[in-house]
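for the writeup, i need someone to sanity check this before i put it in the appendix. the sequnce is what the collaborator sent (i think, or maybe the updated version? ugh). structure was predicted straight from it, no edits. if anything looks off just tell me and ill rerun, i have time this weekend
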Amino acid sequence: MFGRAAKAPVSEDDRLWVDEGFERLSRLLGRRRMLEARVMRPTAEDFPDRFDGSEAALQLMFLRVAGCMGVDPDSVELQVFSESTESTLESIPFAACRSSSPGGVYVEPPDQKKLVAVHQRQLRDPVALVAVLAHELGHVILLGGGLVDREAEDMEPLNDLLTVFLGFGIFNANAAFQFSQYTSTDSQGWSAQRLGYLPERVWGYALARFAIERGEDDPKWSRFLATSVRSYFKSSIKWLRASTRTG
């Protein structure tokens, strides 16, 4: 009676955007995709292939991530690039990336396969590599499938939300603060040493909404979240439970 109403862990605008984002993705892809998504964790159980940093290991990881996200890997060309690989750099526009080359890029060359390219340095970090692949394959789904306009104001944040929707939220929430994303007229990518599009609290709320929608009040997979993201996740779960009871 005299207590204060619980405060949402995110702003009302962010909360409404995440909630509407899940509804939009459900309309575009089908709610069943979210309900049946396998939540991928950084474990040998979910990624049993030995990762040694080679391009062969990258290919196996790409096939696994693409399969889990429902992308036909034969429809996408996978490349590795570095600062010194001029022939590759010439095929990928970096106009919006000034401080360092991106960790991953998605390009739609005319009359060719869609291209996903990852920076060679990502082969040293399998966890970040999974996040990069999931992000770029998200572009294959939303942009390549003509489901979202590349000029849409929230195209990139919605693509981040898609990684949660399809079960890769642990990787992308944890890695978002090692990379920033950029977009130009025909490509998207991540650049090192900056933040991602979604703040930590929004990642936490999005993951909580994902869990609640699937009937998971206390999912075991949440222990794999980075400490700060997990804190927001827990407070969001608590708020969502309370709002459901009182709504």
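The first helix runs from residue 12 to 29. The chain is about 45% helix and 10% strand.
thx in advance!!
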